[in-house]
UniProtKB/TrEMBL annotation:
Presence of keyword Membrane: yes
Membership in a protein family: Belongs to the DoxX family.
Transmembrane annotation, as ranges: 71-95, 107-123, 143-162
Coiled coil (residue ranges): none
UniProt protein name: RpiR family transcriptional regulator
Signal peptide residue numbers: none
Source organism, top-level taxon: Bacteria
Gene Ontology terms: cellular component: plasma membrane
Keywords annotated in UniProt: Cell membrane, Membrane, Transmembrane, Transmembrane helix
Amino acid sequence: MTCYDRRDLGLLLLRLGTGGVLAAHGAQKLFGWFGGGGIEGTGQFMESIGYAPGRTSATLAGVAEAGGGTLLALGLATPAAGAAAAGAMAGASAVHAPNGFFNQEGGFEYAASLGLTAAGLAVTGPGRLSLDHALGHTADRTWMLPAAFAAIGAGTAVMLGARNRRLRKIREGEQEALFE
């Protein structure tokens, strides 16, 4: 291997694997592929776990996963792609957190692993076996990393805050119903 080193190959494998899994999860939400619920079914599920409006939440999560995953796999706009995927996985982790850490108990282990890997790829960069590299890093500038994480972090915080307020109101309503 003259032109590419182990790091480039390793980043390619991480991008393809993580990006492919994220893209498949997003396709479940957006199109109902791979046994997913599509926008309608996923939207209903999102409403049931506190994300409202459900269709909008399903669309945002699906686009972040499918779009972020596809872009990660291609190594294109890597800072934005990794940040978007990490934000979506932060939302998924919040849903699973009450079940503990391990995935076998419904915990957040899997979502956190995907999110951290996506974030790590955004920070590390895509390597030389990527579209970003082939295009001269026009969509992978140094300033894009903090900008992408700031924007996605703010959006994720707003969504999680709204979800937490909804869930708190639901719990308070259930408690009041018990005492009636």
